[in-house]
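Regression report. Comparing outputs from two consecutive submissions.

Submission 1:
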Amino acid sequence: MKVLIIENEIYLAQSISVKLNSAGYNCTIINSFDEYHDKKHYDIVLLSTNTANFLKAVEHFKHSIIILLISYISTDTVSNPLKLGASDYIQKPFMIEELIRKIKHHQDFKKFSVQNKAYKNYIKSRLETIKIPDYNFKKLKFPIIIKSNKQSSVDAFVFKFINECDIMLSYIDLAVTNSVEKVIKSYIENTLLFLSNLQFLKPLEQERLFEFIKNKSVILHTNSNIPNSKFQYINLNDDEKDIISNEILTLDEYAKFIILKYQNVFSDTELSKKLGISRKSLWQKRKKYDIKKK
């Protein structure tokens, strides 16, 4: 990581540089923004508010992590630079270890922000074509059990819920070992807990789970009927199985799924070849399943 230190107290600048170099950072020192001529990109800028034109430096490096090195707290040294794009500040004199802690904190925050944006865009692209019934999400009462043969439908329901209600999400797959223990240990208040594959739990485990999640913000997914449940129950009525459901598809169900998903991707010749059938059989299956090709 490249660090630019803009500081006119040369001893302080050199001391910071030595410590950061030993921690794996690559440091450059200049006395003020007026000396910046190399036009290189710096991941982190340590900017003294005692240097000339430091606000111009903030504007120039606003896409980097900027930590202000200040002598006193005021509107000019803290509030205005933060509004322009600075990330944080530290008041002199300070311990180098505290400065490094702030640097690592903002590095992690920036990395997680980029990752979170990528994950959200990916999830949106995967789920935006999935149609689910309209619900008044803010009036739903927890816990909720959702029956669906398609994991993707439940995923679309859950992500639409957290977007509309602006709530954080936690997820546990109940098919894994000791999943109920994990639910009990990891539950966080004011967070929606999404539990999939309820059908994998044995009756005693289900009973223990149900007792724990009473009056908690939990959505459970199952592809089986849950008899005598006291929780709100939603059936998405998507009885048609797909390739990622937790049940084995018949050959007809598999063929129907593949035809629907890929008939507008491959030609009939390619599609019939991939299914191991003739083009005539492909036509007959379309007729049997009442599938129309655009």
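Submission 2:
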Amino acid sequence: MSAPVVGRRVRVVVPGSSANLGPGFDALGLALGLRDEVHVEVLPGATNGVPSAHVQVSGEGAESIAGGEGNLLVRSVRAAFHAAGVLQSDQPHLRVSSCNGVPHGRGVGSSAAAVVAGAAAGSALLDQPLAPERLLDLVCGLEGHPDNAAASLLGGFTLGWRESAHGAWRAVRVDPHDDVVPLLCVPGVELSTARARAMLPLHVPHGDAAHTAGRAALLVEAMTRRPDLLLAATEDRLHQEQRAAAMPESAALLADLRGAGHAAVVSGAGPSVLVLCPSSEAAARAQDLVRAHEGWTVHAPGVDRRGADVAVHTA
């Protein structure tokens, strides 16, 4: 059984991500160069079975993030401890700080970034860290699906799945083609993932399922070897149109971009829009089109190819 090391401090830098990428619903993810930096320290002193956490947050979402034991980072640290066999009575006091660069409530994986940062920190604070596949299974399980979580943990372009209905979560990481330029278009409004998911139908027509399988397979080829196929490969029938009523401005921007030949998709559950451009010239043209729509901020974050970066300091 592992145990947290008193006095150990870790720093974790973790990227945000875009999930689905059109047809890859709950499976495909892309790590983006928007990052949170998290510091976690195991504090000395007996807890008497009632551990506490001192939490400081700055940057994106700071005004609405819970503190103390209700904080998602803290819960994820403790989930890693629990996965390693640490009993509740042996959970330590923690000091946690986070400087957030990943926008919240915009469909760019802010909750997954927090889960990955917390779990990766918790693993690194143990005298026997979790095995990489165990950490991956943990963060995907905490999120409920592997798209954002795998991308934030592993970096690059990820394909995730579950071995069975109750089996382990798995993912593979591949490098996107160097010519692929992601543009992230962020609106000034938020949309909760729960609300977006509630709009999805319980069943889909067989034709739509078959279309999605083909386009998701094509998307792997487009992202890694044939960026010229990105527009066709990002066509979706499962979730974007079904959620359009909750984000009409996103739907309008999406339609304009795709009508002009750009591979635009809803980023995760929205309301941000991601444009997968096959060249820097195409990215410039897409930016010009987005500027014609009011209320959008455009980022060119690049692809984060490192994933969660962990540094350990021992007192």
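Expected: both submissions complete independently.
Actual: both completed, but the second showed a warning that disappeared on reload.
Relevant detail on submission 2: The CA atoms of residues 140 and 262 lie 31 Å apart.
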